[in-house]
Design goal:
Helix content: over 70%
Order of helices and strands: HHHHHHHHHH
Number of strands: 0
Structural class: mainly alpha
Strand content: under 5%
Largest sheet: none
Radius of gyration: 19 Å
Oligomer: single chain
């Protein structure tokens, strides 16, 4: 699997869309801070407005990266030279996790620097900000698992765009849960969905430990389910 992972990471780094995503992470961090400062309502929680936009873009780029194995028929080549299906899947999952999380970390580092320059530490409670960042990173990790699952189980280029399409209904559920506060089951469902975790971070997360736990469960379910489905898939 190490060889597969090295090849994946080299290919991912060399792609122009990956580099554009890295640049976008930095640009959005600086732009968001400047706009909030000009509007006169800048707080440390404003930076949590953009990770959801970034993740949607990353899901499309990451999904298309994996789906190339089917469109270019390299999956069969990997199997022919003796790589196990589980190793192929896990190499793709690790690549996606690194791609998603590293670029989001770049975003947060840039945002933190911009915030310190523009407003200092005013209004920032370190534990709450770090709790929000942790919730966001684990949610992003869980969403990378969805991207890998769809791209690996839908054996065509459609698997590359399905992840971003799936984000919209999950986001709609989050909005409905905010509007329909009396519908308890909807709130419980949204508590489990990583998109909802990210969408609610414009204020301090009320239960970061629970949301991190849900993201880990989400990640484990989609990774295990993806491996099981890929091992049984007909690739002829």
């Amino acid at each position: 699997m190490n060889k597969l992972l090295r090849v994946n990471l080299k290919l991912m780094v060399r792609r122009k869309d990956t580099r554009l995503c890295a640049g976008l992470s930095v640009v959005l961090a600086v732009l968001g801070a400047l706009v909030s400062k000009l509007n006169g309502n800048m707080t440390w929680y404003d930076m949590f407005e953009f990770p959801l936009i970034l993740v949607m873009i990353f899901s499309a780029v990451g999904g298309l990266f994996i789906s190339r194995d089917y469109t270019q028929n390299t999956i069969r080549n990997k199997l022919t030279v003796g790589h196990k299906r589980t190793d192929i899947y896990l190499a793709n999952q690790i690549t996606e996790t690194i791609f998603f999380c590293v670029l989001v970390i770049f975003f947060f580092i840039t945002s933190a620097i911009a915030n310190f320059i523009l407003i200092g530490a005013k209004g920032a409670v370190f534990s709450e900000v770090m709790g929000n960042i942790a919730v966001c990173l684990f949610a992003v990790n869980a969403l990378s698992a969805i991207t890998t699952f769809l791209a690996m189980t839908v054996k065509s280029s459609a698997g590359g765009v399905l992840p971003i399409i799936l984000m919209y209904p999950m986001l709609m559920l989050s909005v409905l849960a905010e509007e329909l506060e009396d519908v308890k089951w909807l709130k419980y469902v949204c508590d489990f969905i990583p998109v909802s975790h990210i969408a609610s971070l414009m204020q301090p997360d009320k239960d970061p430990a629970m949301h991190i736990c849900y993201s880990l469960i989400f990640f484990a379910l989609f990774t295990a389910g993806g491996i099981a489905a890929f091992r049984k898939a007909d690739l002829k």
